[in-house]
Amino acid sequence: YNSSGCFGNHQVDIWDLFGEQRFDYSTNPNVQKINLFNRDIPTSILNMYKKIIWMGNSYGGDEAFFDPTKMLSYVINGGNLLLATREGADFFSLDLQNYCGITSFTGLSAITQLIALDDSLVNISAVGTNDRNQFVTLNAGSEAVGIFDDNVATNYVAGFRIQKENEGGFVYIAGRPYRF
């Protein structure tokens, strides 16, 4: 994780929902606080943060700790959430899909790169195997804007952003962020 794009140059608190994994987060000077526990994050803790980056793997049970209803409420009430994960459909309830304007998810696919659809972003190559990813189709009335694609010849997008008036922002990126 230390050399991946998920940290950048930002100070962060780590909430590792798998508990002790024998990974030394303290080697990264941007990590301020390390929390290791194997359970749901309470709303009171989520509300302490203006920005949350949820790095999901959907492998070994982390999606069990992601409550899409709680996360949708967090965004509607002004919080900003970036969800970067493989097997993305596992993280979306019907309400969260409707909020974003998602009509469907693809089957599981591998990503070799993300192609930027937004001029302020760059293409990102995958490092190592970045498989089991799901892309989305947005309906015509969706307020979501595609920001990444895996193949511009399809109607699916590999990432989007949405921010409704007087609410926080939500970003979805297909793939494991530590593999970009």
What are its keywords?
mainly beta, two-stranded parallel ribbon
- Uncertain stretches: none
State the major sheet.
7 strands, mixed
How much β-strand is present in the residues? 25-35%
Order of helices and strands: EEHEHEHEEEEEEE
Number of helices: 3
Tell me, briefly, the overall form.
globular
Provide structural commentary.
With 180 residues, the protein is mainly β. 11% of the residues lie in helices and 28% in strands. It has a 7-stranded mixed beta sheet with strand order 3-4-11-10-9-6-7, covered by helices on one side. Strands 1-2 form a two-stranded parallel sheet. Strand 6 and strand 7 form a beta hairpin. The longest helix has 9 residues. 24% of the residues are buried.
Q: Summarize this, please?
A:
This protein has 180 residues and is mostly beta strands. The chain has helices spanning 43-46, 68-76, 94-100; strands spanning 12-16, 31-36, 51-55, 80-85, 102-105, 113-116, 124-125, 136-138, 145-149, 159-163, 169-174.
How are the SSEs ordered, and which strands pair?
Layout: E1 12-16, E2 31-36, H1 43-46, E3 51-55, H2 68-76, E4 80-85, H3 94-100, E5 102-105, E6 113-116, E7 124-125, E8 136-138, E9 145-149, E10 159-163, E11 169-174
